[in-house]
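Practice problem: Protein ENHANCED DISEASE RESISTANCE 2 C-terminal domain-containing protein
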Amino acid sequence: MQALQRGHANGHGLKDFILAVNLQIPGRDYHHAIFYFVLEDPIPSHSLLYRFIHEDDAFRNSRFKLINRIIKGPWIVRATVGNHAACLLGKALTCNYHKGSNYFEIDVDVSSSALANAILHLALGYVNSVSVDMAFLIEAQTEEELPERILGAVRISQIEMASAALVADPLDGATHVSAHPRVPIRESSWKRLSRSISFLGQGSKCSKETDPHAGET
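Answer key — structure tokens:
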């Protein structure tokens, strides 16, 4: 968010609202997979997104949801993770939230769950042969809050972890230390991160469907 704040100080992008999801990935070296989504229109004060931004962490943890689908990958990853799954990240993992005047950041600590850590460790062994779609949304829990709307979606395709690099401040060349005590900043500049699309304000539907890639290895 430091680059964003510097841009705002120079008058750039002041009308845009940025949602950032930071997946903190444990391992011998910590990595950060950070996804940015932009909303150009004002957020309606009656919307679920507005409540999510302005209410407390207990509310946020009870609503922040991930839907993922493995598009391509070996059977062992599909069997462990599942082809299509949804979960409340705020309840399964430790999430920290940071709010600014025109940005909102969600830090997801994958190491906070032993089960998630073990699954991730397995998946990372095949990461350069896996493609997965991920959608982030706020769960609707009453009829009035329906339909659920996707905040942002991203496809991660056959990433190369070795392409990650330490992020330095372009102003002074110093490498910043994360506010997370165990996480040095290592933002993945993945070569094959194919798409990151904002769907703010658009409706979404989930349905069962046949996976055309089932059985691939």
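Discussion: The chain is about 20% helix and 30% strand. Students who identified this feature from the tokens alone can consider the problem solved.
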